[in-house]
Amino acid sequence: MKRTLATLTFIALAAAFAASAYCGPESSAKDSKPSVQKAPAEPYLMEPWDFQDPAKFKSIMKDREDLQEKMHSVRVKLINEDPDLQLLHKKIMALHKELALQLESKKEMRKLTDKLKDIDAELDKLPRKDAGKQ
C-alpha cells in the first residue's frame, strides 16, 4: 500500500495518541507519581522464531496488519466525511510542515540529513541478489 507523507504522519500521530492512552488518570495530591498501566507488546520488535508456535505468531501478525489497514481506511474515510476532522487534520499537517522546516533549518539536523542521504546512496549502489531477474 503506497502512503503519502501526510498519511504516514497522521498514522504516527494516531499511534502516539493511542500510546498516550496507556497512562492512567492523574494521581491525587497525596501520591506524586501518576499511575501508568503496562503498555502492550510491541509486535514490530518480535520475530516468529521468538515463539514456540511461529505459524500462530505469523497468523496473528497477519490479522494485526489487516486490522491496521482497515483502521487506516476508516480514519481516512472519517476525515473525508467530517468537516471538523478535515480542519483539524489540515491544522496538524500545517504544524507538522512547520516543525519539519524548522528542524531542517538547524545545522545539526542538516548534517544528519546529509549523512543519511550519503548512506542511502551507498545502499543504492549495492548489487542486489535479484538484479538479474528484473
What would your notes on this structure say?
Residues 19-31 have low confidence and may be disordered. With 134 residues, the protein is mostly helical. Helices cover 63% and strands 0% of the residues. The two termini are 21 Å apart. It is built from four helices and no strands. The protein has a domain at 53-124.
Tag the structure with descriptive keywords.
134 residues; mainly alpha; 4 helices; 63% helix; 0% strand
Compute the CA-based radius of gyration: 21 Å
Output the helix-strand order.
HHHH
- Helix content bin: 55-70%
Strand content: under 5%
Uncertain segments are 19-31
Biggest sheet record: none
Outline type: extended
Quick summary of this structure?
The protein is mainly α.
Helices, strands, pairings?
Layout: H1 5-20, H2 54-81, H3 83-104, H4 107-125
Helix pairs in contact: 2-3
